[in-house]
Amino acid sequence: MPRLLYAPTSPYVRKVMVCAHLCGMADRIVLLDSAAHPIRRDPRIAAHNPLAKVPTLILDDGQSLYDSRVICEYIASLAANQDLFPPAGPGRWRALTGQALGDGLLDAALLARYETTARPAESQWPEWRAAQLVKVAASLDEIEAHAPAAAASGPSIGEVTIGCALGYLDFRFPELDWRASHPGAASWFQVFNAQPAMQATLPRDA
């Protein structure tokens, strides 16, 4: 069975596992412990991914797939799931753009978090962290603008990624209180996050 280098707090790992649940394949993936870190390389990951990042999926033939975008599409292809990655047409571009928006929000949020958790105090740059949070805020505004059109059932990779991104804000940035200024996104997320695939993959500290 495929093996996934895994971290229970990673929103990108969660994205992969949500797709696996939606495709009925979660029980066909073996989870491997790892300790991904922006500075300290975990040799268990680096042996299969030169970037030493999770998620990394190791196939039965030894080939490795990374990052979450590739792994999610691989899982959907195995399950012949065309909801996650629609075939050519406007729906596909909406799904992929939604994925890019959610991933971009996560990238900015992680950089903001690393500034205070991975850097020593004397090396931290508050303006850099603030600039990343501006990207987070702008992404939330975009999500709010399109929330009424987002699907809750038969979701695409766009909805999955945005859902995992909003869940990460709840997990690591509760002080942002993003729901207060984005009621449409909050209403959508309340429904989306109740799905079994999301509840089965809630982030947790080790």
UniProtKB/TrEMBL annotation:
<protein>
    <submittedName>
        <fullName>Glutathione S-transferase</fullName>
    </submittedName>
</protein>
<dbReference type="InterPro" id="IPR036282">
    <property type="entry name" value="Glutathione-S-Trfase_C_sf"/>
</dbReference>
<dbReference type="Pfam" id="PF13410">
    <property type="entry name" value="GST_C_2"/>
</dbReference>
<dbReference type="InterPro" id="IPR004045">
    <property type="entry name" value="Glutathione_S-Trfase_N"/>
</dbReference>
<feature type="domain" description="GST N-terminal">
    <location>
        <begin position="1"/>
        <end position="83"/>
    </location>
</feature>
<dbReference type="InterPro" id="IPR036249">
    <property type="entry name" value="Thioredoxin-like_sf"/>
</dbReference>
<dbReference type="Pfam" id="PF13409">
    <property type="entry name" value="GST_N_2"/>
</dbReference>
